[in-house]
Amino acid sequence: MTGRPGGRPLVPAYLSTGGVARPSRPQLERLSVLTGSGEPPPADLTAAQLSLLEALEGGSLTVVEAAALLRLPVSAVRVLTAGLVDRHLVLARAPIPTAERFDPDLLKRVADGLRTLKH
């Protein structure tokens, strides 16, 4: 979407979703990972949906990253993504969980073992 010199988009975000306010898939989170399915896009997609598919051609993005690239609110990208997932054009998976904290004692023993190997 092209913007005004002041940085605001010419089209309000709710128009990019076709007036839909809530995604059909509420489990989509800000950090859900999106990947294009590789299916050819149908002719009836909106410009925002096509832009999202183009952004996913290079690999996977999170919802937040896609929103930044498209210069749309995260809520609008969640609606767009849900529509594309429903049409099997985008695959979405849950965010990668954060790793558990390592045991400091284990790290110390590994470091000590590496030091003994070095000598």
Structure description:
Helices cover about 40% and strands about 10% of the residues. The protein is mainly alpha-helical and about 120 residues long. It has a 3-stranded antiparallel sheet.
Query: Beta-strand percentage?
Result: 5-15%
SSE run: HEHEHHEH
Number of helices: 5
Largest sheet: 3 strands, antiparallel
**Spans where pLDDT lies below 50 across 5 or more residues:** none
Q: Which features would summarize this protein structure in a list?
A:
mainly alpha, 119 residues, 3-stranded antiparallel sheet, elongated, 8% strand, single chain
Layout of helices and strands:
Blueprint: H1 13-16, E1 33-36, H2 47-55, E2 61-62, H3 63-70, H4 74-86, E3 90-93, H5 104-118
Antiparallel strand pairs: 1-2, 1-3
Helix pairs in contact: 3-4
Briefly characterize the structure.
This protein has 119 residues and is mainly α.
